[in-house]
Amino acid sequence: MLFTVKFRLRSQNHNKSTNLTPLYCRLTVNGITCPDFFTGVRCNPIKWNHKEQRIIGSSNDVLEDNRTLDNIRASLKSIINNLEEGEDVFAVRKKYLEKDLPKPTLVEAFEMFIKNEKECFKGTEKELNEKTIQKWYYSRDHIKSFIGDKFKLRDIKKGFERKYFVHLLQSGKMGNNHAIRNVSYLNSVLDYCVMERFMEENPISLKTFLRDQPKPIVYLSEEQVSVVENIQSVDPYFNECRDIFLFMCYTSLDNNEIQKMDIEQHLEGNCIKITRGKTKHRSLQIIPLLPKTRLLLEKYNNKIPIHPTYRINRCLDVIETILKLNFNLSTKVGRKTAGMYFLINDVPLAVVSRILGHKSIVTTQKHYADVLDSLLVLKSTKHLMQ
How far is CA 76 from the centre of its chain? Predict the structure, then answer.
């Protein structure tokens, strides 16, 4: 029986942060080739000698990886030598993977994935922040509440994702989009398991899940902002929380960004330049310093007061009643109010996107789609209204 074992770099799975590329095994028996499978070895592409089928170097890690490749060859040869009549290359692949397959539980696989993500990106621009890591642990807990600690990866069948999705909805703790996000976390973990040869394939699919359409944005008009500016209280905390909200309406910054802002560091000319967003999706906001923004900064000697978001929202509950709004007034409305102020006053969409710190103009279009359509109609028919 003729067979060949070749190891090949899979460049599309190259990790830029570690500069490592996974090595896959390609097995051919009697001229028939089965799908490649992951060897568990990753190496720097520069150190891979394709002709010799070896990793170049003499470090302990390199020697260990080359021994792993030798063991794979030996295991495949042993299986081929003991094939029964009628069995082919696909049977060899299956026997090898089943023989060598570790069997962690799904919860254990979740924890291994989180640990790998933390270590893989540590010290890089893509390093996970604590908030993101906590989300992954919450998702692990949701899985644990669904199937317990003992559920094996091999027991995951097609349709598992739909049952998990229904469980998340019925738990009463999350809506459609939140549940879909947690199913996508599960999908990422199972993709990792395939890469690590814990599973032969990922049996779940996200294609059947549809996210809810974005809710229409709510914001304050310029007249309503003016009313807020003139609301006064004997409570100094209330007045400070009101001013923080107004600063949001003038700049589009949220409370966390305002707390981190150092005006001496971030003020350049007539603009505030500040980086916002998650660790691996950071983008630069370039915010024009409006006259009202400057007045607020002067009022507080360039140091906007710091209050927790819940306290600001408590203040906004009072303002909501005064304005007789038909929506919930929260700190998030401040950012939307800023975006709308610039759009209504004919600031180009691309510029508004930079002010808001969106990574792409498409993000801005998505959030303000309905409003942009209305503004376009009004502007295009303005001459007809005269």
Answer: 39
